[in-house]
């Protein structure tokens, strides 16, 4: 049996879903083919997200902002995780009717504004919350997360 396909879905695919993709691939890439997408993709990953992920040794090479439409009717996901309320409300029902659907809401790093000395700690906090959630979920599935960094 092949690896299970796993989709992180949010609105812009510029922050949370990208972090989820990077974390799950690093922690359990041997178990899952991991994807991320947005309902209204921004076209880029936020530089602050790339920065805070690289701080812990996770580069996001090969990842880019993309639309969920590129997967509709083409990929069957075992898991779809929506990471924001907007995506949860507007998620194409086809993804909710296949596999398992989970809602893991996190604050939006794109909505954090202000000077860098205020933005960075908040985005790091969101990053760490996502990491903890994914590691906890993996342990609940009987999968030991790989070490990163």
Key words describing this protein structure:
5 helices, about 150 residues, alpha/beta, globular, Rossmann fold, single chain, four-stranded parallel beta sheet, about 15% strand
Sequence-ordered SSE layout with sheet pairings:
Blueprint: E1 4-10, H1 16-28, E2 32-38, H2 47-55, E3 79-82, H3 85-90, H4 93-96, E4 100-103, H5 116-140
Parallel strand pairs: 1-2, 1-3, 3-4
Beta-strand portion reads 5-15%
Q: Identify the strand order in the major beta sheet.
A: 2-1-3-4
Biggest sheet details: 4 strands, parallel
Give the CATH class: Alpha Beta
The CATH homologous superfamily is named Response regulator
Structural class by sheet pairing and helices: alpha/beta
First-last Cα distance: 30 Å
Number of helices, where a helix is a run of at least 4 consecutive DSSP H or I residues: 5
**Taking all residues together, what is the mean pLDDT?**
89
The tally of beta strands, per DSSP, is 4
Run of helices and strands: EHEHEHHEH
CATH architecture grouping: 3-Layer(aba) Sandwich
What is the 3D form? globular
Regarding quaternary structure, how should these chains be classified?
single chain
State the CATH topology: Rossmann fold
What is the radius of gyration?
A: 14 Å
Helix content: 25-40%
Low-confidence stretches are: none
Q: Mind explaining what this structure looks like?
A:
This protein has helices spanning 16-28, 47-55, 85-90, 93-96, 116-140, and strands at residues 4-10, 32-38, 79-82, 100-103. The chain is of the alpha/beta class and 149 residues long. It has one domain: 3-Layer(aba) Sandwich (Rossmann fold). It has a 4-stranded parallel beta sheet. The longest helix is centred in the last third of the chain and has 25 residues, at 116-140. The protein is globular, with a radius of gyration of 14 Å.
């Amino acid at each position: 049996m092949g690896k299970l396909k796993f989709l992180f879905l949010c609105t812009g695919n510029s922050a949370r879903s990208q972090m989820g993709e990077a974390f799950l691939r690093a922690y359990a890439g041997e178990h899952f083919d991991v994807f991320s997408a947005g309902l209204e993709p921004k076209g880029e990953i936020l530089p602050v997200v790339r920065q805070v992920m690289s701080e812990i040794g996770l580069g996001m090479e090969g990842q880019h902002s993309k639309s969920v439409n590129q997967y509709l009717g083409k990929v069957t996901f075992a898991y779809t995780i929506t990471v924001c309320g907007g995506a949860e409300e507007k998620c194409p029902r086809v993804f909710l009717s296949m596999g398992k659907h989970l809602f893991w809401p996190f604050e939006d790093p794109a909505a954090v504004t202000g000077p860098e000395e205020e933005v960075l700690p908040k985005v790091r906090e969101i990053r760490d919350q996502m990491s903890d959630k994914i590691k906890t979920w993996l342990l609940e599935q009987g999968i030991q997360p790989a070490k990163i960094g």
